[in-house]
Write a structure and sequence with these properties.
The chain has 257 residues and is α/β, with parallel strands linked by helices. The chain has one domain: 3-Layer(aba) Sandwich (Rossmann fold), CATH 3.40.50.150. It has nine helices and seven strands; from the N terminus they run H-H-E-H-E-H-E-E-H-E-H-H-E-H-H-E. Strands 3-2-1-4-5-7-6 form a seven-stranded mixed beta sheet, sandwiched between helices. Helix 4 links the parallel strand 2 and strand 3. Helix 1 crosses helix 9. The longest helix has 21 residues.
Length: 257
């Protein structure tokens, strides 16, 4: 769960109070993880896995369940890593998962040390082209990169919708743009890609988010500034409910050359 945009400190305190309480910090699901892993043919039985931009680890625990290897989970937001470490300990997974505070642009991890790099909704923070170079350097020959990214589904989204994405992801493109970036890099061969279904947005992400916002409105009932921030945060699921046909998340799986 990496975030790069500027905002007042109060916004970010409210943002993390909300997002760190959710089962996951972005669209996705166990079923999508299963489908993406199925595209990683020939992956070792016990792969070394890196989860970049892991947040508090919703997808990290899916990877621990679905693969047999060791997992390094990295995020630059230290409170998220601290919470993830607590969850790892509570589940008795200290021998399988290592939570690391670090920058995905310069993760400081040994080169060629992973069989699979996984990143859900986070690589955009450093740009897909740069992310491909970083990940290629960390992968063993023939290793896989599996990541999700927000994409436009149509070439003419409504003006207010596009404006909403401009602040956070001005470079957001279409599926074919990311495919072209992967191919142009010369570092990876695209194995496959697929769109996340609507339930991947709602079951473990927006539905819990909206319920949590209701709880937080009660907590901050007498705090006008906090309520204004919650109004802003509530626009994300509301926007998707209205405009979901215009954009989505795509899962990409590519193999290192």
């Amino acid at each position: 769960m990496e975030k790069a945009t500027e905002a007042p400190p109060r916004f970010w305190r409210m943002f993390f109070e909300l997002y760190e309480s959710l089962p996951r910090q972005g669209p996705g699901s166990r079923a999508c993880a299963v489908r993406a892993l199925a595209l990683c043919t020939g992956l070792p039985t016990m792969p070394d896995v890196l989860d970049l931009g892991c947040g508090v680890g919703g997808q990290t625990f899916h990877l621990a369940e679905l693969t047999g290897g060791l997992i390094a989970a990295l995020d630059r937001h230290v409170p998220s890593i601290e919470r993830l470490r607590g969850l790892i300990a509570a589940l008795g997974l200290e021998g399988r998962i290592r939570a690391v505070a670090g920058d995905m642009a310069e993760p400081g991890l040994p080169p060629a040390s992973f069989d699979l790099i996984w990143s859900e909704g986070a690589l955009y923070n450093i740009g897909i082209e740069r992310a491909l170079r970083v990940c290629h350097g960390l992968l063993r020959p023939g290793g896989y990169l599996a990541f999700t990214d927000a994409v436009w589904r149509t070439g003419d989204p409504p003006v207010d919708l596009r404006a909403g994405f401009e602040a956070d992801y001005p470079a957001m493109g279409r599926v074919q743009d990311i495919v072209a970036t992967i191919e142009r890099s010369g570092l990876f061969s695209l194995t496959g890609h697929f769109p996340l279904p609507d339930e991947a947005w709602w079951d473990d992400y927006y539905t819990p988010m909206e319920a949590r916002i209701v709880e937080m409105r009660e907590k901050y009932a007498n705090d006008g500034e906090a309520l204004a921030v919650l109004d802003e945060l509530a626009r994300e699921p509301a926007m998707h409910r209205v405009y979901g046909e215009y954009y989505g998340y795509e899962f990409f799986v590519a193999r290192a050359r």
